[in-house]
Design a protein that fits this description.
Radius of gyration: 36 Å
Strand order of the largest sheet: 5-4-11-10
Largest sheet: 4 strands, antiparallel
Structural class: alpha+beta
Helix content: 25-40%
Shape: elongated
Order of helices and strands: HEHEEHEEEEEEEHHHE
Number of helices: 6
Length: about 260
């Protein structure tokens, strides 16, 4: 009887040991399967992918530039007509497609405004009367032109092209007939706010600024204008002629988006 009980005890322990071994092997197989699945997923996200994406609304070069910073270093983007050929990893391709959707939006309607005499009356030289700001409607990406007068030779002129991104406008501004500031300027404007463009200071103004910085008490003094008696005798239409064009006024630009 005792020997039979011992044989039964040994058999139960053997069964339990075998069952434990089976469970451990099963757990190990499951863990290995999960690790293998994760490895395959990682490999899938890193696999090479090529896709041709048609740009519907914007200049493909603009969209290509907008997404370029997000491109995987191993990838590339080519352009043929209105299509972008993107070669990168599968994960990066999905990121780029989201950025393309965000940038390939229909062109918006804008109101572009320019004020060739934005300075306040208190700061205008010789109290020259300010001209009213000029505003025109345009489609995003179009170039609009403005002139401070009748567009005759010598009058300050400005051309502006704007592309909107969120609450900002990337603007290319070409200014003519404003000494010290003539040429192309690329700036970023906050929508709905005036951006003041200050022409370069003349040599005399730079010297005066340096003197005032060295002797602050000069800035507190009200100096008589040596030309005031002469200007007082001039007809109003000649007053502007004696003012250096580059410092005659501050030019300001503004871009608004129509609903």
């Amino acid at each position: 009887m005792i020997q039979a009980f011992r044989r039964l005890h040994i058999s139960v322990r053997a069964v339990l040991t075998a069952l434990f071994a089976v469970l451990m092997v099963g757990a190990g197989s499951a863990a290995y399967a999960q690790a293998d699945s994760e490895t395959q997923a990682d490999a899938g996200s890193e696999r090479a992918a090529i896709e041709i994406i048609t740009i519907q609304n914007r200049d493909p070069a603009f969209v290509r530039a907008a997404i370029g910073s997000a491109l995987d270093p191993r990838g590339s983007i080519a352009q043929v007509d209105n299509k972008l050929i993107v070669a990168t990893t599968a994960t990066n391709l999905q990121q780029l497609k989201q950025l393309i959707e965000q940038n390939d939006l229909p062109a918006r309607r804008l109101v572009v405004s320019v004020d060739f005499d934005y300075a306040s009356p208190a700061t205008r030289v010789f109290n020259v009367v300010s001209a009213a700001p000029q505003s025109v409607q345009a489609i995003e990406g179009d170039t609009v032109s403005f002139s401070a007068g009748d567009a005759s030779a010598g009058m300050p002129q400005l051309m502006l092209t704007a592309i909107v991104q969120e609450n900002l406008a990337d603007a290319d501004i070409v200014i003519s007939n404003v000494p010290g500031f003539t040429g192309l300027h690329r700036i970023q404007l906050t929508l709905g706010e005036w951006y003041i463009i200050n022409p370069a200071e003349s040599a005399e103004e730079q010297v005066q600024a340096q003197q005032e910085a060295a002797m602050p008490e000069l800035a507190q003094q009200t100096l008589a204008d040596p030309l005031a008696p002469v200007v007082a005798q001039l007809p109003p239409d000649m007053v502007a002629a004696v003012i250096e064009p580059s410092r005659q006024a501050q030019i300001a630009v503004r871009v608004d988006v129509l609903p």
